Amino acid sequence: QKGGYPHFMIKEIYEQPETIRSTILPRIKNKHIPDFTADGIPDTVFEGVNRIVIAACGTAMHAGLVGKVMLEKLLRIPVSVEIASEFRYQEPIIDKNTLVITISQSGETADTLAALNLAKEYQGTTLSIVNVKGSSIARSSDYVLYTHAGPEIAVASTKAYTAQLSCLYLLAFRFALVKRTITEEECVNYMEQLQAVVPAIEETLKFDKKIEEICKNLKEKEDLFFIGRGLDYALSCEGSIKLKEISYIHSEAYAAGELKHGTLSLVTDGIPVIALATQDSVFSKMISNIREVRARNAFVILVTNGEKEVDESIYDYHIALPELEDSLAPFTAAIVLQLLAYHTSVHRELNVDQPRNLAKSVTVE
Ligand code: M6R
């Protein structure tokens, strides 16, 4: 069942090149254009949409945070990402021109389902990104874009997350094409870059041993920070939840620029800081933030998109990901964060696949 792997989680981490390929390829039609005809999603769904709301929980919500950046960049319309358990008890600003995207691996998360039903009450158009075929969320949505991740057994979500990102990127490309905010040529270019993610993930998985080594330094720690800006902040949120849920180490995700507005006081001698610096536009700002934590003797693990010239004195470990276009770096960075959480949990001899107090599918409110 585990295919020779010691845990489902690591098996599922390694399945990602395949699950991303299976999610993307069936949706590529002539000349690398994304097409949702077979999914029953006509282009008319996107016409008239002037606002997008993404509602989800946990890791699925973090996928939404990444999706927001891409959707806003390409569509130039506002996108908000809502925690489903909060959103469902509010009076949302939704009308017939709002596209409400719910994201769920299981398709059974009670709060996400309630958020979806609320969106319907307010006349929003609902589209869900779901992994489990025929699940409640899939059945209740106007449109469904399935992730083809296959069954995810480990409680910590890994391959569903990158499959969700794949769907969000495909959606952004198609939507932008329909809205004419990108040209067909640009779309083809984006799609080629998206497909380059698969070999890049295969390369990233080769850091497995190095990450296992790094995690020996984390296993005795009690607190840890993930920092990043923009897409890297969205990724930090995901890295933090993954580590917390299976290693039981307290961690926080921080927008790097926010550190000096309070949290820097918690950065003391030896505290691990996972610094994600994959975005060129804010790279020098990130380096300044890393210097700030380094000055407090933080133990820094730096992740960059490709080899970057960085002063070696500011980090303890550096993982240079295979270079991708910046907006696609979340795919490879996510693999590093998943492996960090996995190996830390293994070093701590915890129940990786079934962490305490947590269930795979949260069908209670
Ligand atoms: O099945 P869903 O995607 O709706 O589940 C949402 C969250 O419960 C889930 O992503 C949870 O946060 C994961 N265990 C995180 O790894």
* Tally of strands: 12
User: Which ions and ligands are bound to the chains?
Assistant: 5-amino-5-deoxy-1-O-phosphono-D-mannitol
Report low-confidence residues grouped into runs of 5 or more: none
Q: SSE string, helix = H, strand = E?
A: HHEEEHEHEHEHEHHHHEHEEHEEH
Largest sheet features: 5 strands, parallel
Question: Mean pLDDT, rounded to whole units?
Answer: 96
- Secondary-structure-based class equals alpha/beta
Cα-atom Rg, whole angstroms? 20 Å
Helix count equals 13
User: End-to-end distance, in Å?
Assistant: 31 Å
- The helicity comes to 40-55%
Q: How are the strands of the largest sheet arranged?
A: 4-3-5-6-7
Description of the molecule:
By secondary structure, this protein is an alpha/beta fold. The protein has 13 helices and 12 strands. Strands 4-3-5-6-7 form a 5-stranded parallel beta sheet, with helices on both faces. The protein has a 5-stranded parallel beta sheet with strand order 9-8-10-11-12, sandwiched between helices. A hairpin with a 3-residue loop joins strand 1 (28-29) and strand 2. It is globular and about 55 Å long. The model has no long low-confidence stretch (mean pLDDT 96). Residues 57-60, 104-106, 109, 112, 155-157, 241-242, 245, 361-362 line the site of 5-amino-5-deoxy-1-O-phosphono-D-mannitol (M6R).
Task: Describe the secondary structure blueprint for this structure.
Layout (H helix, E strand, L loop, with lengths): L7 H7 L1 H9 L3 E2 L3 E2 L16 E6 L1 H18 L3 E5 H4 L10 E7 L5 H12 L3 E6 L5 H5 L2 E4 L12 H21 L4 H12 L1 H8 L3 H8 L7 E6 L2 H17 L2 E6 L16 E6 L5 H12 L4 E7 L11 E5 L7 H19 L18
Parallel strand pairs: 3-4, 3-5, 5-6, 6-7, 8-9, 8-10, 10-11, 11-12
Antiparallel strand pairs: 1-2
The protein binds 5-amino-5-deoxy-1-O-phosphono-D-mannitol.
